[in-house]
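Worked example 4.2. Below are the chains of a multi-component assembly; read each line carefully before continuing.
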Amino acid sequence: MDLLTELAIFVLAAFVGFSVISKVPNTLHTPLMSGTNAIHGIVLLGGLLVIGEAAGGLNKVILVIAIAFGTINIVGGFLVTDRMLEMFKKKPTPPKRDEDAS
Amino acid sequence: MISASFSFQDPDVIRGAYVVAFILFILGLIRLRHPATARNGNLLAAIGMALAVVATLLDRRVGDFGLIALGIVIGTAIGVPAARSVKMTAMPQMVALFNGVGGGAVALIAWAEFRRAGGDLPSDVEIPSLFAAVIGSVSFWGSNIAFAKLQEILPGRPIMLPAQKLLNLGLLTAAVVGCVVLAAGSTSQAIFIGVLVVAAVLGNMFVLPIGGADMPVVISLLNAFTGLSAAATGIALDNTALIVAGTLVGASGSILTNLMAEAMNRSIPSIFAGGFGGGGAVAGAAGQAQLEGRPVRSTTAADAAIQLAYARLVVVVPGYGMAVAQAQHAVRELAKELERRGVEVKYAIHPVAGRMPGHMNVLLAEADVPYDQLKEMDDINPDFPRTDVALVIGANDVTNPAARHQTDSPIYGMPILDVDKSASVIVLKRSMNPGFAGIENELYHEPKTAMLFGDAKASVQEITGELQAL
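Applying the procedure described above to all two chains together yields the following structure tokens:
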């Protein structure tokens, strides 16, 4: 793929990221940070693509560590986010009190 | 690997799977915007990730499945228990660590690619790869320092070296020069390792001088960095999945960094100039001196209980101290007892209460506090003048009126909760030690403020006990 196509993808993805995220309420910022954090674990794919072509013990060791790191990033990231969000699940709430009672 | 004839190994099939993964990532992010759909959104993103990983494994270039399995097993064995066992209060550190390993993976992949090619990479591969190596390394080490500071392995106060800024500038220059030499055709691995090491030192140096209070902003920024470095790796490896997912994170991380900095009324350049979040003693010295002579009124659980029992509206102001004491369940019990007596209870959530935006909401949700009682700063501030008792539990800087009027205070201009406008204030606090930003809180010296010293959880339980006995 040529560099300009890749740059085009980059620019468009950046705009999608900006517009989607700028609408998240404060409350969800921590889970959001954690969730996006999990998504950059995608770098695992880089390790998968490169390890087959790598030769030599040190290269393999480096890439096994990279794959392990990427996996920690993905698995840990999504699980932690899920744990946080689990707490937001709908619960039966008491009937709302009149806010302007006074 | 079994070679199939048609097949899922077709590059177009793999790229098609990536497109589906992008849709899932973006839908996931969209769903993360609402509490009701957020969990499902996270799940969608995770499915997208699983799809991208499986599709990549089908790629014919992928080999060495034994080692891949080894790496994934090690990663799972570390990541799953860590994510399962971490306490809600330690979430920010955990996010920092997960972010750091992502950056580490980026830097390692760049290094391995460099070694594989013997340093002889075409420049449209080498330049993004070097970028990824530097940013990944900064992100890895910076995140580790952020973790150590939040975990209190390192002191939260800023650690300054003489000529810190000059040193950082020198390090950055050295890294850039190294990259230029490599991009210009040098195949020296020593220079590449040198660049990685310089970037590592830079990552350390760049986070060390930043105070603990600013750490969320730093983690968010490093999150964006890692995203960008993953996108750069994607350009180097010609992989659209990395470009798209990395860029989405880079974009969202930047936005979030900005929002957090705004909530604290801090400009990003001033955060990275360092020195805040532990200093302040010098800047606010004049105001502090005035406070010293003023008395602090302390109260007892029994008195507090009576005050609360006869209030009409009680606003609970939770802060990091409540999180540390794991008092959220006790607070919920107290609120239930008050509601039983017909007292209206609301919770005032400052955007940066706790150590990350939204952190307090997560903790209170854990304790089954009804979602509609959690009020954000702008919604609750108009209510304080009609509030009978504001119950401040382990919150400090976000209630300090100095932010409104004391121009030489380091927190001057930060939006605060107008706790001082309520009829009376009860502050639960361990001691008179200043908060994370290291400044005295004049709220504590107000005549209408009563301090209840002790562990937040024990104090809350005591008040609840007294209430039940009334």
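Take a moment to check your reading of the output against the notes. Chain A has a mean pLDDT of 83. Chain A touches chain B through 87 residues (CB under 8 Å).
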